Amino acid sequence: MTFALYKYIGMAGGILLSAISGGHAGGIEETEVSFSKDIAPVMRRKCATCHMTGTEAGGMALHPRAAWKNIVGKPSGESRFFIVSPGEPEKSYLLMKLEGTHIENGGTGAQMPFAAPPLNARIIQTIRDWISAGALDN
Ligand code: HEC
User: I need a surface site. Which of 3, 58, 71, 130 has the fewest CB within 10 A?
Assistant: First the structure.
């Protein structure tokens, strides 16, 4: 009897929680990330200075017209991961290089952007959300 009651309270709590988070889902956090508007401009400013033609170390052009096709579904040259694996942020080497977890994941080299402060947490989260949503060319 007591058990059944707890179970009931637990369920009610679960329903309440999902009602709250469900209400949230329509808010700002669910706004779709646009690669061309939200990510490509950051790469142009912070990355393309070095990743310009694709022949430099790191081997990928990251200016706006080239970035998407050079990272999505492309194997990393310095790890066993793809640079961006659509839907799989935890398997996308790009995020490891931006967060500095590349070495512990078997990669090499420096945290990106090379010889500059890391990108801020908000833009890294935006990139993570974009990868989770399928890394669209949008
Ligand atoms: C000052 C030059 C410089 C800047 C700026 C820079 N990179 Fe790099 N990048 C390199 C070099 C050199 C390498 C290869 C050596 C290494 O990994 O440290 C590299 C390697 C990489 C790799 C690994 C490629 C592979 O095949 O595995 C990724 C991913 C990467 N950079 C992403 C970025 C991103 C994203 C930015 C911008 C936020 C950025 N880089 C900014 C110089 C730079």
Answer: 3
Identity of the residue numbered 118: P
**Considering just the CA atoms, what is the radius of gyration of the chain in Å?**
19
- The beta-carbon contacts of 104-109 under 8 Å, at least 24 apart in sequence, are 105/79, 105/81, 106/79, 106/80, 107/76, 107/78, 107/79, 107/81, 108/78, 108/79, 109/58, 109/78
As separate numbers, helices (DSSP H) first and strands (DSSP E) second, the chain gives 5, 0
- Between CA 105 and CA 83 the distance in angstroms is 13
Q: Separation of 100 CA from ligand 1 center, angstroms?
A: 12
pLDDT in tens, the chain (138 residues): 455 545 544 454 444 444 444 444 444 455 799 999 999 999 999 999 999 999 999 999 999 999 999 999 999 999 999 999 999 999 999 999 999 999 999 999 999 999 999 999 999 999 999 999 999 999
| Site to substitute for ligand 1 among 114, 120, 128, most atoms within 8 A of C-beta | 114
